[in-house]
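Notebook entry, structure prediction.
Reason for the run: the old model in the group folder had no record of what sequence produced it. Starting over properly, with the input documented here first.
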Amino acid sequence: MSRLARLASLLVMAVLAGCATGPVRAPAAVTLSGPALAAAMAGVEAREALLARSGPLAFNGRVALTNGADGGNGRLEWWQSGERFQAMLRAPVTRQGWSLVAGPGGARLDGLEGGPLVGPDPGWLLQEATGMEVPVAALAAWAAGTRADEAVHGRARLEFDADGRLVRIRQAGWTIDYVSWQAESAAPGAGPLLRRVDAERGDERVRLVVDDWVLGAPAPGGS
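New structure, fully documented this time:
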């Protein structure tokens, strides 16, 4: 069994992955201009501003990933506050779990055969564990339907549908499709947060279905 399969996809792009059913696609993007484009961008900026002032962000859902040869899926719990985050992935049948904790002081990955991995940052650590480059710092932003820090990850290209709803972000070599959004807003004043996201870069494909969002969430375990 490959290292990637053995880790059950770890949490590699887990925030962008999901347990999707059927070949559902994001709505078609259209070219907006003038007031329509300004209104669509204002919606994204309002969501970004709300999340920035809401404090820690948490969500849980179902995640799946494939790199064209191997893959895995499971339940995902994610908590993030700035550069600090904690994530837990559990396999659906064995219930085996992996946890990733990271912050300015470094990162730690637990649940591996042979003991934990410790590294200077989560991106480096996941690359050591899986051989894949993972823009970990961008994951929560993309999952929430916002741009990752453009100073770090490069310029983001946003695409909208005819109603001005965000359907796609292209950034850092990834294409993130927003397939569906929650019916009821989890972010008053900025519209609903996502229900399902699909993302890909080359052969790497990831999906996420979010069951619950919590804004201003306390750290797991009260830490």
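Summary: The first helix runs from residue 3 to 6.
The old model has been moved to the deprecated folder.
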